[in-house]
Amino acid sequence: MFFSSNPGSLCGISAAGERVAGGGLCMKQRQSALQWVICVSQPQKTSEMAANKSKGQSSLALHKVIMVGSGGVGKSALTLQFMYDEFVEDYEPTKADSYRKKVVLDGEEVQIDILDTAGQEDYAAIRDNYFRSGEGFLLVFSITEHESFTATAEFREQILRVKAEEDKIPLLVVGNKSDLEERRQVPVEEARSKAEEWGVQYVETSAKTRANVDKVFFDLMREIRTKKMSENKDKNGKKSSKNKKSFKERCCLL
Ligand SMILES: Nc1nc2c(ncn2[C@@H]2O[C@H](COP(=O)(O)OP(=O)(O)OP(=O)(O)O)[C@@H](O)[C@H]2O)c(=O)[nH]1
Ligand SMILES: [Mg+2]
């Protein structure tokens, strides 16, 4: 994969590794599903997005987030608002777009990979592969469309099925388009109680006003980090008990 080193620049790279596009927002530069668009954002104005150029990218922790939900709920709008502080009014259905950005998470510089998937049913068959690569999920619906809320249960089922061997999958339920209160079809209580039943957090966002946009991405990264830390602990624990055993095995009574 290729990542641009020019501040603020965006690059698209085809699956074959060739440069296919440069500059401008990805919404305007959709590639085929096989031509994943890799967009790199250099530090933006907010303090959370400072970058430390002296550190190599490879040494930074990388958290992989997948945007999931029905078509038109605002997955791309949320992603682009988080990446570039811009709200995209046009609706252009996504196939699959991928983004990477350096951010500061609780004082630690990390990288976030965001895979923005297709909500439209035409692309349902390719979702399994995308979901497999994710470490955490933003399960998005629109508060103005009850059907999109109902659909979250199916998306969650698919995630659980694909990641069946994993314990607790980092996931947040996101009710987007909170700026359209007058068109609300999903009561806060209904969404909150579903999230409680699933043991996850429920947050309402607006890609238009930017309300809670950073929160959902940062809270999810925290959940991913916590999971990785506990997995590492388990691994190290197992290793040290193995070492102890092999030491014992080498001893003999004199
Ligand atoms: N008012 C308002 N409109 C939004 C918001 N988020 C997205 N939209 C609009 O809703 C439409 C669909 O948004 P997208 O982000 O393209 O939806 P998507 O979930 O990526 O859809 P697919 O790519 O088909 O899965 C666009 O016209 C956006 O401008 C929001 O928070 N508030
Ligand atoms: Mg989209």
UniProtKB/TrEMBL annotation:
It is a lipid-anchor. Its EC number is 3.6.5.2. GO terms for cellular component: midbody; plasma membrane. SUPFAM superfamilies: P-loop containing nucleoside triphosphate hydrolases. Residues 228-237 have a biased composition (Basic and acidic residues). Transmembrane segments: none annotated. CDD domains: RalA_RalB. One of its GO terms (biological process) is receptor internalization. Residues 228-254 are annotated as: Disordered. Belongs to the small GTPase superfamily. Ras family. This is small monomeric GTPase. It is found in: Cell membrane; Midbody. InterPro entries: P-loop_NTPase, Small_GTP-bd, Small_GTPase, Small_GTPase_Ras-type. Pfam families: Ras. One of its GO terms (molecular function) is ubiquitin protein ligase binding. Keywords: Cell membrane, GTP-binding, Hydrolase, Lipoprotein, Membrane, Methylation, Nucleotide-binding, Prenylation. It is an enzyme of class 3 (hydrolase). Coiled coil: none annotated.
